[in-house]
Amino acid sequence: MTGTISSYISLLPLLSTVFTTLGASSPIEKRAEAPVKTGFNRVWWENWGHKDGIPHNWVYNLGTSYPGQVEQWGTGEIQTYTNKTENIRVVNKVLYITPKKVKDAKGKITWTSARLEGRKGNQWACADGKKMLVEASIKLGSASEAQQKGIWPAFWMLGDVFRDRGYKGWPEVGEIDIMESVNGLRQTWGLVHCGIYDGQKPIRGPCNEPDGKGGFVKGVGRGIWNTYGIEIDRTSKDWKTEKITWLINGVRRHSISGSEVNNATAWDFLAHRKMFILLNVAVGGGFPNGVEAAQTPFSTTIDGDNVGMQVDWVGVYQQI
Ligand SMILES: *[C@@H]1O[C@H](CO)[C@@H](O)[C@H](O)[C@H]1NC(C)=O
Ligand SMILES: *[C@@H]1O[C@H](CO)[C@@H](O)[C@H](O)[C@H]1NC(C)=O
């Protein structure tokens, strides 16, 4: 999700990386509460039922950057994030993040949307020798592809040291994109970002920046509830054979091991250290532009709940 403005051309090779097709799997029902899981402690969960509302567990990321940091959130995305109910609200214990299109008197179009990051204190690491699951039940907007060009919902994590360092140090701090989808495609990506990247020089580092490493899944239904998750598996006790696996509706889809990142420091940031969760819908920017091979959003792109993201629950689970 984080990246550099010049990054979208080099995102294209992603289209040739490992992928699987979802095929016929039964979509998960809305259930309003993160389920308990055998063999795991549910260490934290969000059901959007707190009396003090969204800020109970989350902070709003507002505007077009972290204070004083790289503009357009580092990815070239064009929306301004707000905390207005037209962009973010909870209805019947479901979170709605909704992009809105605003036309000014001169006909100039601007976009607003919303982004949450877990409140400080809500960050977790997988214990040595154990597994950790981070999962959410999400419904992606079901408008047509033409109507969703440039719309970029995401459920992801960043290393907690990122905020300790004043929101500096990407990609070294580590990023796990649990679910990203762009342009209304029935396709979701799961990637890691880590190590080093210098947009001016061809330094791609252990996570092949700015593309990241990981995979994607085709055939993902939109307008239905699916659970998207990652499992960090440290049961092998050797960092090279530890794994991060992406799951949809509990089914393993693709994974990355320490040896594929092949840098102990970078892997430590990704798989051993505390991370916090983010939920957002961006508009425009490197990823949708790169996948579309064109500048997004298009004039056909619509706003509203049909291009937004709904989140039923989020859960973090530590293996017992
Ligand atoms: C929304 O953001 C504004 C700053 O733009 C702030 O003053 C206000 O308290 C925030 N409202 C909520 C509900 O967080
Ligand atoms: C591992 O990645 C770090 C950046 O996270 C880099 O500074 C270091 O040189 C890399 N080590 C090796 C052996 O490539």
UniProtKB/TrEMBL annotation:
One of its GO terms (molecular function) is hydrolase activity, hydrolyzing O-glycosyl compounds. Residues 1-25 form the signal peptide. The keyword Cell inner membrane does not apply. It holds the Pfam family GH16_XgeA. GO terms for biological process: carbohydrate metabolic process. The keyword Signal applies. This is GH16 domain-containing protein.
